[in-house]
Design goal:
The protein is α+β, with helices and mostly antiparallel strands. It has helices spanning 5-20, 53-59, 69-72, 111-115, 147-151, 161-165, 184-191, 201-207, 219-222, 236-249, and strands at residues 25-29, 34-38, 40-43, 46-47, 83-86, 96-99, 108-109, 122-123, 208-211, 216-218, 231-233. A hairpin with an 8-residue loop joins strand 6 and strand 7. One zinc ion (ZN) binds at residues 67-69, 80, 100, 104-105, 107.
């Protein structure tokens, strides 16, 4: 577990190598304990632009480069995908880079600079199958907002509040639109109910969120989702799209 000092010197050396290479993006290879090429994706013979790399990650069998975390600890996995993102502040603001998602190992590559160089190691990645789920997008810690924590303040995530809020059983055939906020369990039942089914758009958006990785969840279930993506509230369009997909599938 412990990082030996000679290893940390080596880490620094490898990080410097990655930072200094101007004809290829370098990534760590655990088999050889060396830096090797991460081949820049090329689509129809054209380099994919830095701003489109995340989209390419979704649609093609392409992962971000391996950062140096695997070199830092014996117990680390062989592959730790670096985040590809644009810098949010400072002199490089808006520029695309790849770096350790957690800023732990020192891996940092200035993608935008390398992209504009005349020589660049590239590769054409295969397209994912139409309905294949891409691996979750790796985001950098600078992109994270403390959303998960704020949701613990919302009533639907506090099961202990439910009994206190439980409304009187409605008269059969009618749903109490006037009652304040329905609890999650009630809303989920209404979605698939044989009696007076259905929830409003607002209720639907209160129930479900979408992660940056593309998966949809109930807000409750999202807390157990392990990907590093952030949750987003559903837009009206997404609610319509989602229900549209469901209709087509059946
Ligand atoms: Zn790392
Ligand atoms: Zn996710």
């Amino acid at each position: 577990m412990a990082i030996q000092s000679n290893n940390s010197t080596r880490l620094e050396m490898l990080a410097t190598k990655a930072k200094g290479c101007n004809f290829a993006v370098l990534q760590y290879c655990r088999d050889t304990n060396q830096m090797v090429f991460w081949r820049w994706p090329s689509d129809g013979g054209v380099r994919v632009e830095p701003k489109d790399l995340r989209k390419h990650h979704d649609t093609h069998y392409m992962l971000g480069p391996n950062c140096l975390c695997p070199a830092s600890e014996i117990s680390a996995p062989d592959f730790v995908e670096a985040a590809i993102y644009s810098i949010s502040k400072g002199p490089l603001v808006g520029k695309y880079v790849a770096s350790c998602a957690q800023d732990k190992c020192g891996y940092f590559v200035f993608l935008e600079y390398i992209f504009n160089r005349p020589v660049l190691a590239t590769r054409t990645y295969e397209r994912r199958l139409p309905h294949e789920q891409a691996p979750p997008l790796v985001t950098h810690k600078s992109e994270a907002r403390p959303l998960k924590r704020t949701y613990t303040m919302i009533d639907i995530n506090a099961p202990d509040l439910v009994p206190r809020r439980a409304a009187p059983v409605p008269a059969s055939g009618s749903r109490p639109r006037i009652s304040s906020r329905k609890n999650v369990t009630h809303l989920l039942e209404l979605l698939d109910s044989r009696v007076a089914p259905g929830v409003t758009g607002a209720e639907f958006r209160r129930l479900f969120v979408k992660c940056n990785c593309g998966l949809f969840f109930t807000r409750r279930a999202f807390q157990d989702h392990t990907c590093v993506g952030e949750q987003r509230d559903l837009t009206v369009t997404e609610v319509i799209d989602l229900t549209g997909e469901e209709t087509e599938a059946t």
